[in-house]
Amino acid sequence: MTKTSIRQNERVRQKRIPFSQIRDLLTPTYRQHRLRLAVGFTALLCVDLLQLSIPRIIKYGIDGLETLSITPPALLQLGGLVLLIALFVVVLRFCWRYLIIGFSRLLERAIRNRIFAHILKMDAPFFEKMTTGDLMAHSSNDLAAVQMACGMGMVAAVDSLVMSVAAIGFMLAIHPQLTLLALLPMPLLAISTRILSGKLHHRFSSVQEQFSALTEFSRSTLISVGLIKAYTMETFQTARFDTLGRKYVSSNLRVARIQGLISPLSTLVGSAGMIMVLYFGGRLVIDSTITLGDFVAFITYLYMLIWPRMAIGWVANLVQRGLTSLSRIYTLVTSRATLPDPPADESEKLIRAPEFHLQNLDFTYPSLTKPTLRNITLSLGPGIHGVTGRTGSGKSTLCKLLVRLYPVEDGCLFFQGRDVNTLPLKFIRSHIGYVGQEPVLFSDTIAANIALGRPDATREDIIYAAANAAIHDDIEELQAGYDTLIGERGVKLSGGQRQRLALARALLCDRPLLVIDDGLSAVDVATEHDVFAGLRKHFGGKTVIIVSNRIKLLSMTDQIIILSGGNIQSQGSHDQLLAENSLYKTMYEKQMKQEHRGAVSQP
């Protein structure tokens, strides 16, 4: 099921998605703000009509001057009318910009929220396939392209269409044959724009992919800058960044070549039409077929067509960018998680002492062919369970399956007697506190990091959880105490402090099941004993699963499970395994010798 879903997502990513599908991303926002758009486009149409009336006013003035039939007060009235129209245009132009461009920002917000909400719903296989750079590109460059297409792109398309139709209509009223001559080069522009727009789609896709790669490289470099400095890799990373930057610039230049062709073509077509009007229209004036005022008005209308002709290329560019980005966003938000998540059942109740039962469970990561866990049959109920084994034996994988980060086959994993695939993810996870191998901390205060799972927690609750995690004394020694800002990923804290802070977060949630995936590896033995005492006190009658290779910690648990090669090699108490399991006995003897040598070396 997992591999099939991933292959389907990859096929969707490769092909161009028709607009009939991706418009579903836009329809809800358009429907919600239809009145705003109606008023905005009405103001836009009014601006166009007012602008189109100005050449008619100029015509009357010029014809009056030519025949000497107009008086200075009449000319002043015409000038005042033009000024009044200009004032109305200013007000109405502000209105349509505020309403329509403002709508594009509302659309941008709606799509951004949908992207963010969808990403938070996705499972671990999704994040193995999508890099952070990809996701950031969707939320920045792609979203900006969609906003421009649905903002200025939509305005320019409507405006150029109205201006073109109306201006051509007025030109036809003045002289149909002259209008046909003026528009004779237009088919060349239409054909050229269509050909160039098709190439623009593919080239802009390449630009977005290069931007994703550049963003991901920047992100990964910045979060590991300490490691890069330690290995003196600054020059090497700079060279790699320069290579990616050159590829990104090269892709943008390929797009710029297309854009650079469209605008000159528009100007060329407009100039060709203007030459024909000047020559043939001038002869019509000389022959008195049309008046001088008609000729000036005709040229003014033809001048008004320059913007629509140039807008054809600009709009084509914006639309192609917007469609390309919208297709990428659509692929993202329609990707499906491989984890089943049935709707919540009102009959489901929170249980104080939940338990897991694994029945002949096999698991293989989507990117691998060899199973990581094989034929696991195990019951995990109230009490403290230790899980140990060599590196790669499947300990962390077991924890990830229990907290429902990866999918499992039906009938293999049961939670409180029910198949996990029949239960909502939120229901299962709401019972579990999880502390991973690498503690995830945010650039915020210590109190905010501890209260992540319970934003409404009081300061007393936070201090109580920190005390049980044996981190309270360390926090009190800091100048700002619980209000200390810990920096990006908790950079101001030691490894052991970060782990205990993550543990305090899980304790504060007070959930009936706690999974600690080697989350105490950076804690010294004495502190580890204090942490375990806090767990005993806080989790009496609950279920705790601790992954560790430290024998002293394992010896304090109620049951120890030893994994080897993805199988359960043995399980039992500390004394049982010490007597029966050679791997556990070897680990015990080795650690005892190391502890003895450490004690002897101390003065």
Describe the protein in words:
There is one protein chain. The chain has 23 helices and ten strands. A hairpin with a 2-residue loop joins β9 and β10. The strands form two sheets. Strands 6-7-8-3-9-10 form a six-stranded mixed beta sheet, sandwiched between helices. It has a domain at 2-333: ABC transporter type 1, transmembrane domain (ABC transporter transmembrane region fold). The protein is 66% helix and 9% strand.
In short:
This protein is an alpha/beta fold and 603 residues long. Helices cover 66% and strands 9% of the residues.
- What percent strand? 5-15%
Distance between the termini: 60 Å
Q: Can you identify the CATH superfamily of the domain at 2-333?
A: ABC transporter type 1, transmembrane domain
Class of the domain at 2-333 in CATH?
Mainly Alpha
Shape: elongated
* pLDDT averaged over residues: 81
Strand order of the largest sheet: 6-7-8-3-9-10
Question: Based on helices, strands and strand pairing, what is the structural class?
Answer: alpha/beta
- CATH architecture type of the domain at 2-333: Up-down Bundle
> How large is the radius of gyration?
35 Å
